[in-house]
Every structure is written in C-alpha cells, then in structure tokens.
Amino acid sequence: MSITIATEKQNNILMVKLAGELDHHTARKTRSVIEDELKLMKNAKLILNLAELNFMDSSGLGVILGRYRALKEAGGELMLCGLSPAIKKLLQLSGLLKIMTTYENEQEALKAYEVTL
Questions:
Q1: Would you call 83 helix, strand, or coil by DSSP?
Q2: I need a labelling partner for 31 at 20 to 30 A (CA). Which of 45, 55, 66, 92 fits?
Q3: What is the model's pTM?
C-alpha cells in the first residue's frame, strides 16, 4: 500500500500525478504534499492526474474534496484528468463529478486553463 506523488509547477498551475493507492494509509501524506505546494502559490489551479492511480477509497475522496473546497475558497480551481473506469465510477457515485471538471489527460486540462487565464 503505497503512493507515488509527483509535482510540477507552471506559473500558478500545480500538476500532481498520483500513482498507486490513495487510501487511509496514504491520504495524510498526499494531503500534506499538495497543501505544502499550494501554500507557496496564489490563486492556484490544481490538476490532479489520476491515470496511474489503481485504487482509491473514501479517504482518497476526502483528500480530493478537501483540496477542491480549499482552492475554491482561495479563488483557485481543481481539475481532474486521467480517470480510469474504476476511479471514474467511484467519483460518480460520490457525486464529485457533478462539481469537478474532468479531462482525458494533462494536456487537455492545461489547454483549458490557458483559455481561462
């Protein structure tokens, strides 16, 4: 049970690639890494790339929803990309897909951000 978290910044956009499992064992670490990166940015836009995430439970949903709320309050935005069928189904059942924007991949999400800048 592990997760790999890779971050990359472009202007006010933080791209986070998650690989492995986002569950109660890895949620705290994931939340901490993302929050530490976002603290240094203003009006940040966050792209969460979940293409290599092979498992997520309710703790993972909590991490995503928490970042969504915090960004929204701070004038930022969160987008999801690279959703596998299993992760997409979990996000649909939780209702998160009704409030979050999703894209096929990082490139599409970046293009969407460029249009809104």
A1: coil
A2: 92
A3: 0.94
Bridge-based pairing of strands 3-10 and 77-81 is unpaired
Residue 24, φ and ψ in degrees, nearest 5: -65, -20
Backbone region of residue 56 per phi and psi (left: phi > 0; alpha: psi in -120 to 50; beta: other values): beta
| Residue 103: strand, helix, or coil | strand
Concatenating the DSSP letter of every residue in 5-63 gives EEEEEETTEEEEEEEEEESTTTHHHHHHHHHHHHHT-SS-EEEEEEEEEEEE-HHHHHH
**Euclidean distance between CA atoms 21 and 28, whole angstroms:** 12
**CB count, 10 Å around CB of 80?**
22
* Residue from 80, 3, 76 nearest 39 by CA: 76
Give residue 101's Cα distance to chain centre: 11
In whole angstroms, how far apart are CA 25 and each of 30, 58, 86, 108? 10, 11, 19, 31
